[in-house]
TrEMBL record:
PANTHER family from the UniProt entry: ALDEHYDE DEHYDROGENASE-RELATED (PTHR11699)
Name of the protein described by the UniProt record: Aldehyde dehydrogenase
Annotated catalytic residues: E255
Domain Aldehyde dehydrogenase: 28-482
Keyword Oxidoreductase: yes
Pfam families from the UniProt entry: Aldedh
Membrane-spanning segments: none
Family from the record: Belongs to the aldehyde dehydrogenase family.
InterPro entries named among the record's database cross-references: Ald_DH/histidinol_DH, Ald_DH_C, Ald_DH_CS_GLU, Ald_DH_N, Aldehyde_DH_dom
Lineage: Bacteria, Bacillati, Actinomycetota, Actinomycetes, Mycobacteriales
The keyword Oxidoreductase appears for this protein: yes
Organism: Mycolicibacterium thermoresistibile (strain ATCC 19527 / DSM 44167 / CIP 105390 / JCM 6362 / NCTC 10409 / 316) (Mycobacterium thermoresistibile)
Amino acid sequence: MQRTLPDKLPAPRLVIGGGDVISTSGGVYEHHYAATGGVQAEVPLAGPAEVDAAVAAARAAFPAWRDLDLNRRRDILQELARRLVADGERLGAIATLEVGTPNLLASSSSAMAADWFTYYAGWIGRSAGEVVPVPAGGALDYVLDEPLGVIAAIIPWNGPLISIGMKVAPALAAGNCVVLKPPENAPFSALRFAELAAEAGLPPGVLNVIPGGAEAGSALCSHPGVDKITFTGGGETARKVFAAAAQALTPVVLELGGKSANIVFPDADLDAAATMAVSAGLMMLSGQGCILPTRLLVHDDVYDEMVTRVVAGADALTVGDPWQPTTMMGPLATAAQLERVTRAVDSALSDKAGKLLAGGRRPDGLDAGYFYRPTVFGDVDPASDLAQTEIFGPVLAILRFRSEEEAVELANNTQYGLAAYIHTRDLRRAHVMAAALDAGGVAVNGFPIVPSAAPFGGVKQSGFGREGGIWGLREFQRTKNVYIGLQ
Ligand code: NAD
């Protein structure tokens, strides 16, 4: 399985003010191909000097981008969307090489990112301000929605292209310039995106890409030239981002982790519920996704039947070479991820947090890459780490409940609040549960992967702020009131 195609990877570099920069002031990251562990690239990383340069380039490009004819701004974003679709195969190959995503599934993320650009291109020229009635006559009062200026977009490695769609599309549509910081281990999708953006006519400096780690992230978050930070990542990093942003009182959007409950009632379509539990709860991105339903809550009446189906589904998943069209689950993204998942499963076993029903080990014959079998624990103790902490890997915790009230209590009983899922055919129950669940989003009988027109984000330790729809656009606008005396 020594299939690597490094020629598909864009040259590792920084893109600042439209020019390529090779600087190693933030160090060099040795990039390993997740399916073999082999080194396939050396990634130069931004340090504080490149952060300064990128912010300055974005600041310099801002007035012209803000004032550009709106039809032209819209045309550029629409053209970028078209280019993302046309480049699907290449971007899919990059995702496979970058983080080991099965190639069959990887190609879809460029279409998803394109959808976000098309959607937000549609808002350009349509986000009008308001005229506000003032108590005394003889005056006109109106509200302007203005861009903020320079947006720092810090993204994780698990789905870089989708994060780019969710952050960069609304930021640019609102008239801002962007400094995009992908992580060390996933710079390639962002760099290819920058090439497509330039080809689509995005002026130099409007988008700057600076791959980097904690040093670059921290310099960016405390930079006085940044007007807003939009961050997706883990809670521990988010606290550092928030603390750094406090220095310049820079506002932040934080999209963090989750441990989303997937609640199955006896009246549900069990086929559909079991399919989703396996595909979204275990297989998708090898479990490395913030919104994935990693806690399965099953009513006592159908518990045994659901468990049987889910375990059979997990055991049937083909784990292996991400280039093979039959592969359903690729490797984890990095050696650190493999270590994290292995540690979490080993602790769950030694804590007796639940009964191991599937997986719990690496697959046979795939020792070189970062593979792990889809793993299922049943009758999980709700207080255990296994039930409480995001693992970010293919590990499903199944819990049992006996009433709606108990389901709500279990579902809400974690620090997170990103998403929740319900399977029922009972309309009353669907609405009652949707209202009672402590989550930024609730889905009934389905798994919507972040639709561009809907608000996406968390509550509690899953963060704050929203991406998607008008809510996502407003995050990148400031409000100005204008009062004009007419007497
Ligand atoms: P992470 O927090 O380690 O890194 C996220 C980003 O922050 C990376 O670009 C990283 O380089 C950067 N960073 C690291 N230290 C920094 C610092 N001191 N200051 C500023 N930036 C810094 O997260 P990860 O391991 O890349 O991703 C996994 C986490 O992201 C999980 O918790 C997952 O749930 C979460 N996530 C959330 C969403 C969502 O939309 N809610 C989506 C995907 C992933």
